[in-house]
């Protein structure tokens, strides 16, 4: 042991009983990092999403890029991006302040024009970097275990198919950046704990601010930091709370800035995307969707881009999914609370699951919003940790054996390696075959309709695609009429599910106006659309 390490350990002993402060610097011992494992995780992230590089712009890419006039000003549009709601060009004021992702799109536009290939490649690169840094953080968190534990957690995270929406959809870069900067901030704070150098604390605070600029829900990063300080660094409860206070200040400053620049949000009266608010079932629906999220973590199939009205009907006490979700939540909460005394890795995983799931559940509980697969981006980390703990117990793996002899450890744990290989192989296969669904909008719509034929939104999307085809066939009236009637077929199905769907009613009027030569029907549906 070096003199410097002995000195640090001695200082730790003196500081251990000290009163915690805002700059509590009880040092933790640095851990060696296996960068080869980090690189493998990053490389696999690139490989499984390589087939998205030539995809186009889909769904919310219109609001973020193709119809965002600030983004299309390039660098000159950045000042306006910094003071605008994300949905500014969609005539909505939802209170989403996420300028950093839009700034990256503006930079891409400045350098490459409207080029979806560049944007998709950058998403893949950022995702790979996230996997690399996450595997470093995991090795620091689980320094008492063999490096294979962190490596396998990283592999499960990077290959999990539920991430396809985030990586394959350009707009969801906000999710990637938010996660990337959050784990970077925690890494920097760990470096601060290892060295007691204030520059790492300051860097961590700046990086957390960048995470918030990427996506507001990154504020849960301070919760992740708090539980990692308590469960992993073995800080006391008071030390863990004091340790995150500088980050709390950053979060407060960010939200003050947000409110000053874009004002308060307005939750729209929209039953399609805010089903549970319209039906006043937010509380019970929160638990129903929690169960569905857990199911997607365990069995990520089918994966669908839309879960709006009426894919998952409101939660009810007579609904088995709601009841199981409520019990699952209470059981997880109970064992997470119980583990506060033992500070077990299992308890850490459960606490991490609750903290990272908070934005998804809050969106239902507070706003009555719908399920979205991208909301499970961060919770996959907790799932991967819990899964590895399960494998550790069931297969009786000794991860305390910190031997770095690759061949020796591999020979001793062939069953586990086989299980991980099969699992991540299946995940990778599912991811690779799911990616093409995001190639273009009509392909995406059809992939959703395959599983959710009761979604009024998906039917609207399919109908609108036919309307566009009719519009583009204006030189051939018969062909245009045929497309219009095909659009009507989808719209009628949508109205059977949601009779007051304003967008659909307007489109039906449009079809009768221009393609079926039924002016009275056009007037009727136009009038209904305005009601």
Question: In total, how many beta strands?
Answer: 0
Give the helix proportion (percent range): 55-70%
Nearest-angstrom radius of gyration?
25 Å
Q: What's the structural domain tally?
A: 3
Distance between the termini: 78 Å
What is the global morphology?
globular
Biggest sheet details:
none
Uncertain stretches: 9-25
Overall description:
This protein has 531 residues and is mainly α. The chain has three domains: 30-265 and 401-452, no CATH class; 267-394, no CATH class; 455-530, Alpha Horseshoe (Serine Threonine Protein Phosphatase 5, Tetratricopeptide repeat). Helices cover 67% and strands 0% of the residues. The protein contains 24 helices and no strands. The model is unreliable at 9-25 (pLDDT under 50).
Layout of helices and strands:
Elements: H1 3-15, H2 35-48, H3 61-66, H4 78-81, H5 99-112, H6 116-141, H7 147-159, H8 164-168, H9 173-195, H10 198-214, H11 221-231, H12 237-262, H13 275-278, H14 282-298, H15 320-342, H16 345-367, H17 379-394, H18 406-412, H19 414-434, H20 441-451, H21 456-472, H22 477-497, H23 502-514, H24 519-530
Helix pairs in contact: 2-6, 2-7, 6-7, 6-9, 7-17, 7-19, 9-10, 10-12, 11-12, 11-16, 14-15, 14-16, 15-16, 16-17, 20-21, 21-22, 22-23, 23-24
Give a short summary of the structure.
The protein has 531 residues and is mainly alpha-helical. The protein is 67% helix and 0% strand. The protein has 3 domains: 30-265 and 401-452, no CATH class; 267-394, no CATH class; 455-530, Tetratricopeptide repeat domain (Serine Threonine Protein Phosphatase 5, Tetratricopeptide repeat), CATH 1.25.40.
């Amino acid at each position: 042991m070096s003199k410097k390490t002995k000195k640090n350990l001695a200082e730790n002993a003196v500081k251990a009983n000290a009163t915690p402060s805002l700059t509590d610097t009880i040092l933790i011992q640095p851990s060696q990092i296996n960068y080869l494992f980090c690189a493998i995780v990053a490389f696999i992230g690139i490989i499984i999403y390589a087939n998205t590089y030539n995809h186009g712009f889909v769904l919310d890419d219109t609001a973020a890029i193709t119809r965002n006039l600030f983004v299309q000003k390039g660098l000159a549009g950045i000042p306006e991006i910094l003071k605008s709601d994300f949905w500014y060009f969609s005539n909505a004021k939802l209170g989403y302040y996420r300028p950093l992702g839009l700034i990256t799109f503006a930079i891409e536009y400045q350098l490459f024009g409207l080029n979806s290939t560049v944007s998709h490649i950058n998403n893949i690169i950022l995702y790979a970097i996230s996997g690399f840094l996450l595997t470093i953080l995991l090795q620091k968190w689980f320094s008492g275990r063999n490096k294979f534990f962190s490596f396998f957690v990283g592999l499960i995270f990077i290959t999990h198919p539920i991430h396809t929406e985030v990586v394959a959809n350009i707009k969801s870069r906000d999710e990637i950046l938010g996660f990337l900067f959050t784990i970077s901030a925690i890494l920097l704070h760990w470096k601060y704990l290892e060295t007691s150098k204030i520059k790492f604390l300051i860097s961590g605070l700046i990086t957390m601010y960048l995470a918030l600029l990427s996506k507001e829900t990154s504020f849960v990063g301070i919760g992740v930091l708090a539980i990692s300080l308590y469960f992993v660094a073995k800080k006391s409860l008071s030390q863990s709370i004091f340790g995150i206070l500088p980050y709390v200040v950053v979060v407060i400053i960010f939200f003050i800035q947000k409110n000053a620049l874009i004002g308060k949000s307005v939750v729209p009266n929209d039953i399609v995307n805010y089903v549970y608010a319209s039906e006043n079932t937010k509380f019970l629906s929160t638990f129903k969707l929690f169960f569905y999220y857990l199911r997607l973590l365990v069995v990520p199939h089918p994966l669908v881009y839309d879960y709006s009205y009426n894919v998952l009907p409101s939660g009810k006490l007579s609904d088995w999914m709601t009841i199981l979700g409520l019990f699952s939540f209470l059981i997880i909460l109970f064992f997470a609370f119980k583990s506060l005394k033992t500070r077990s890795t299992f308890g850490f995983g459960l606490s991490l699951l609750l903290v990272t799931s908070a934005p998804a559940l809050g969106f239902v509980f507070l706003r009555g919003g719908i399920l979205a697969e991208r909301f499970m981006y961060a919770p996959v980390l907790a799932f991967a940790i819990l899964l590895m703990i399960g494998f550790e117990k069931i297969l009786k793996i000794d991860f305390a054996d910190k031997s770095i002899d690759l061949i020796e450890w591999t020979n001793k744990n062939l069953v586990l390696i086989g299980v991980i290989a099969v699992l991540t192989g299946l995940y990778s296969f599912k991811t690779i075959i799911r990616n093409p669904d995001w190639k273009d909008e009509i392909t995406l719509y059809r992939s959703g309709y395959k599983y959710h034929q009761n979604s009024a939104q998906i039917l609207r999307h399919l109908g609108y695609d036919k309307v566009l085809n009719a519009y583009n066939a204006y030189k051939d009236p018969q062909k245009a009429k045929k497309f219009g009637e095909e659009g009507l077929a989808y719209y009628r199905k949508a109205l059977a599910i949601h009779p007051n769907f304003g967008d659909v009613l307007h489109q039906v009027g449009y079809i009768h106006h221009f393609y079926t030569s039924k002016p009275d029907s056009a007037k009727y549906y136009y009038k209904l659309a305005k009601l």
